[in-house]
Amino acid sequence: MHPPLTLHRHPMCAEIIEQFQKCHLNHPIKKFFGECTDLKIKFDRCFREEKAVKRKANFEESKKLRARLQAYRKETADNP
């Protein structure tokens, strides 16, 4: 299974998604016998890469938020 193939949610993989959707349209029966499998493997890899990029960005953002929170806690602890 794969996530919904909406282009606005996966901008890094838009080209591969379009190719995959065209393959499914052009091969309505062969898609069940592996005609589009290579493209599916490509966009699965792309989704993994995209997820890794998002995960790294979220981690960096959480470190900034954690630092701000610790500074706020230290500030409020010093000023009762």
From TrEMBL:
Keyword Disulfide bond: yes
Main location: mitochondrion
Localization per Swiss-Prot or TrEMBL: Mitochondrion
This protein's GO CC annotations: mitochondrion
Pfam families: Cmc1 (PF08583)
Sorted UniProt keywords: Disulfide bond, Mitochondrion
Family: Belongs to the CMC family.
Name of this chain's protein: COX assembly mitochondrial protein
